[in-house]
């Protein structure tokens, strides 16, 4: 006979979705546009326990469910919600044009959205002012998700920055498109030729990663990153806040962050904020580096990384950003999600 449950045993509570923070465009999905200072529960637009991914852009948000449905809300002036119009949406609303198409991942850029289906196809919608939709001869904006035809191989990971995007294919190749990093590259690397992937308005192979196989790509405001199957992390783009763990102000090509920065352990997972990064090693250790003036690194730093460099000419030798050194946060060891 099975023992009777003790009255002191905790009763599992139903999963719920909460939102808070800036809400100027209704991106919290609460039905209004007032900023929210404390967590508020969202109405049941889907079963909370079935939410697989949550992500946000410059003023819009997206949720992917376990069943592969996509819900969106918030700023929509360029059609970044993919709903066929450009009106703001204050509640999480299903993207009807994708009904019946299972979604695996969504990446929200500043004013555009990149969508990955479960069969490995990539779609995009929103602003295309900088070629960030990957459709070089397309319109200035797209209000309905359209396939990026030039990505012919199955894609396994996508990322979106301020005005650029990335994709990693099943074979481990990394593509980038959108000209968002080009102006900074020209300014910070005078006299040097920019690689094609920094100026392309269609998916272009990221050179410098030929001897590695990517399993995941990430993007910040003006930087990119790629995690390989060997547990190595490559970064490129702007290093204004030390987010590339380099002395250079801008990296035109991918550069591997040395293993010693992670106590000689392989990287198992990486997350990117707008100007900082977080990595977790195979043993569960969590490292943070990059911009720190808002406490986004979860630790105290001696200098506000990148601030001193803003007063200097970054194109001069020795005047790049303060070196962002990945530091371990023992309290987060073993974290399951960041």
TrEMBL record:
Pfam families per UniProt: WD40_RLD (PF25390)
Domain of life: Eukaryota
Predominant location: cytoplasm
RCC repeats: 15-67, 68-119, 120-171, 172-230, 231-283, 284-338
The keyword DNA-binding appears for this protein: no
Keyword annotations from UniProtKB, A to Z: Cytoplasm, Guanine-nucleotide releasing factor, Nucleus, Phosphoprotein, Repeat
SUBUNIT field: Interacts with SEC5. The interaction occurs only in the presence of magnesium or manganese and is stimulated by dCTP or GTP.
Domain called RCC1-like: residue spans: 17-314
Localization of this protein: Cytoplasm; Nucleus
Protein name listed in UniProt: Secretion-regulating guanine nucleotide exchange factor
GO molecular function terms attached to this record: guanyl-nucleotide exchange factor activity
Function in brief: Probable guanine nucleotide exchange factor (GEF), which may be involved in the secretion process.
